[in-house]
Amino acid sequence: MSNNKRKFGFWSALFLVLFAIFWVGLLSGNILWTSDTPPLEIISDMDNQPKVKAQAASNFFADGKATREPVEYTVPRNGTKYATSLDDADTKNINTIPVTPEVLARGKNRFETMCTPCHNYDGKGNGLVVQKGFANPPSLVRPEAVAYTDGKIFHVISAGQNIMSSYADKLSELDRWCVVHYVRVLQNGGTHPKMASAAPTSAPIKQQ
C-alpha cells in the first residue's frame, strides 16, 4: 500500500512540474501555438507601450508631426549655437584641424554615416533616398563646390542649404571639420590636396 502511495505521489509531483513548465512556456511565448494572438504577458518589460515613432504622423500635435522641433533658443547639452551667416563664413569659420590620416578616417566615417543617404559615397548626389524619389542634391565634386572654401562647406553642414537641413545638432564641430576634409578627398579623386599620401580607410577613428 505504501509503495502505491509513493508511486502515486511521484507521478503526481512529476505531472504538476510538467504542467507548470508547460504553462510557463506557453504564457511566455516559448511554446508554439496555433493562434496568432500574442501570449499573455504578466510582466511585459515595456515591450509594448503607447508611443509615437520618429518621423511618423501624430494627431496629438497641431502640426501633425510626431517628431518635435527643439525648443527655440536652446542648444544640446555640451553643444553650441551656430549663428554665422554665409557671407561671414570665410572669415569666421577657420579650419584649424590638421589633415592627418586619423582626421580623414573620422571624416569618412561621419560622412558615410550622415551624408551618404543623399550625397552617396562618391559625393555625386545619387544616394539611397534619391533613388527612392527624394530630390537630388547638387554634386559635391562639381566645380562650383570645389571652389567653395572650407569655411563655406562648414557653413552648409552647420546651417543647411536649400532642402538640406542643419547638421549642427547631429555632428560636433570637430566632426564637421573632419567631414570638410573628407569632402576634399572626394573632390580630389581619393586623396587630400594637402596630403597626397593620406589613406583615410586604414587609420583608426578616435572617439571624443
Question: Can you tell me the CATH superfamily of the largest domain?
Answer: Cytochrome c-like domain
Biggest β-sheet strands, sense, barrel: none
Count of folded domains:
2
User: H/E order of the elements?
Assistant: HHHHHHHH
Q: Structural class of the helix and strand makeup? A: mainly alpha
The CATH class of the largest domain: Mainly Alpha
Shape, principal axes of CA atoms: elongated
Low-confidence residue ranges: 197-208
CATH architecture group name of the largest domain: Orthogonal Bundle
Mean pLDDT: 82
Reported by name, the CATH topology of the largest domain is Cytochrome Bc1 Complex, Chain D, domain 2
Q: Helical proportion? A: 25-40%
Computed over alpha carbons, the radius of gyration is 29 Å
Distance between the termini: 77 Å
**Strand tally, please?**
0
- What is the percentage of strand-forming residues? under 5%
What do you see in this structure?
With 208 residues, the chain is mostly helical. It folds into 2 domains: 1-48, no CATH class; 86-187, Cytochrome Bc1 Complex, Chain D, domain 2 (Orthogonal Bundle). The protein is 39% helix and 0% strand. The chain has helices at 2-27, 89-92, 101-114, 116-119, 128-131, 143-146, 150-159, 173-187.
What distinguishing features does this structure have?
2 domains, 208 residues, mainly alpha, Cytochrome Bc1 Complex, Chain D, domain 2
What would a concise description of this structure say?
Helix content is 39%, strand content 0%. It has 208 residues and is an all-alpha fold.
